[in-house]
């Protein structure tokens, strides 16, 4: 892998207030690489001129002839990419200036993988850190990521990944019809095909938003994000080699990924009765990570979905604002 083998593609739609930072972070790498912007039919008619006036010939600009949606726009990035390696960056996220250097180093340390990535910091809308996803103390300068690890959960917050373009094409690209787990599915397929490795360095910054304006947050608001994660987990299990394959174990899944009380507080008063009852059942079967979760679970076990719906209404009346990352326990 060499710098000339790498492209960073920024997907854009309408977030003019963030996109300059995203593009600048790609152009300001300590090791320069190719940068392109792929617009998915923005409702902002001046977005193209706004970006080109700012960055000119430093970038390549492409616009889809028709709206393709979040995951299929990532396929458009693959189609336009002319290098062996591609990193996709959302218009509201940004990269560390040492992202490319870290990936080149990682590829030397762990050659032959189809997927490389680093650590991520979650920031608010002003770019201030909310949560640092730190590597555990036992983490070396890099760690191999097994297929089992990728099947169990998606370790990539999205900014700061680099994948083999030909490998992505060979596994069929991103699922264009996906509503939530399209990236997790791709990372799992790439790991099954050629392996993955993670660097210790922080290389990406993921911006968390309030509100439900667009993107996969619509799936979260509908209450179907948890269902999508379960479906993807089952798809991942099917990729394990025959001698390591196992059936989906709901009890084990609930132990590793307990039903989030925060999700129920945010969505409980909006969910259809049947879906709420299903999620309360998952909560009851979950292994509680702390005493607050355990207390809420015990009351929900006694009083059922009616309690959760009432608690959710009280949560919203208290003035709490919805957050995109409501999956937190």
Description:
With 329 residues, this protein is an alpha/beta fold. The model is unreliable at 324-329 (pLDDT under 50). Helix 1 (16-27) packs parallel to helix 2 (47-55), helix 7 (182-194) packs parallel to helix 9 (225-239) and helix 11 packs across helix 14. Strands 1, 2, 3, 4, 5, 6, 7, 8, 9 and 10 form a ten-stranded mixed sheet that branches. Strand 6 and strand 7 form a beta hairpin. The protein has 14 helices and ten strands. The relative contact order is 0.11. It folds into two domains: 3-207, Spore Coat Polysaccharide Biosynthesis Protein SpsA, Chain A; 217-317, no CATH class. The protein has helices at residues 16-27, 47-55, 70-80, 99-109, 147-152, 165-170, 182-194, 217-222, 225-239, 250-256, 261-267, 273-284, 291-303, 305-317; strands at 6-12, 34-39, 60-63, 85-90, 94-95, 115-123, 129-132, 142-145, 161-164, 196-207.
């Amino acid at each position: 892998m060499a710098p000339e083998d790498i492209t960073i593609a920024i997907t854009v739609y309408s977030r003019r207030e963030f996109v300059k930072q995203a593009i600048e972070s790609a152009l300001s790498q300590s090791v320069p690489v190719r940068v392109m912007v792929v617009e998915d039919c923005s409702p902002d008619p001046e977005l193209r001129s706004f970006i080109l006036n700012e960055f000119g010939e430093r970038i390549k600009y492409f616009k889809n002839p028709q709206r393709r949606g979040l995951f299929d726009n990532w396929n458009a990035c693959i189609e336009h990419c002319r290098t062996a390696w591609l990193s996709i960056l959302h218009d509201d996220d940004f990269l560390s200036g040492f992202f490319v250097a870290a990936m080149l180093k990682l590829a030397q340390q762990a050659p032959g993988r189809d997927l490389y990535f680093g650590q991520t910091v979650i920031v608010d809308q002003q770019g201030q850190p909310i949560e640092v996803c730190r590597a555990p103390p036992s983490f070396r300068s890099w760690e191999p990521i097994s297929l089992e690890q990728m099947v169990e959960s998606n370790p990539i917050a999205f900014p700061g990944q680099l994948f083999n373009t030909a490998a992505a094409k060979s596994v069929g690209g991103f699922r264009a019809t996906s509503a939530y787990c399209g990236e997790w599915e791709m990372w799992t397929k790439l790991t099954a095909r050629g392996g993955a490795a993670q660097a210790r360095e922080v290389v990406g910054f993921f911006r968390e938003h309030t509100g439900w304006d667009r993107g996969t947050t619509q799936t979260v608001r509908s209450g179907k994000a948890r269902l999508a994660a379960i479906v993807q987990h089952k798809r991942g299990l099917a990729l394990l080699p025959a001698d390591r394959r196992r059936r989906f174990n709901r009890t084990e899944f609930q132990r590793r990924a307990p039903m989030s009380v925060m999700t129920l507080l945010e969505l409980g008063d909006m969910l259809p009765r049947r879906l709420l009852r299903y999620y309360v059942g998952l909560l009851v079967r979950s292994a509680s990570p702390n005493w607050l979760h355990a207390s809420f679970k015990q009351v929900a076990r006694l009083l059922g979905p009616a309690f959760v719906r009432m608690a959710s209404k009280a949560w919203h009346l208290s003035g709490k604002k919805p957050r995109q990352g409501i999956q937190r326990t």
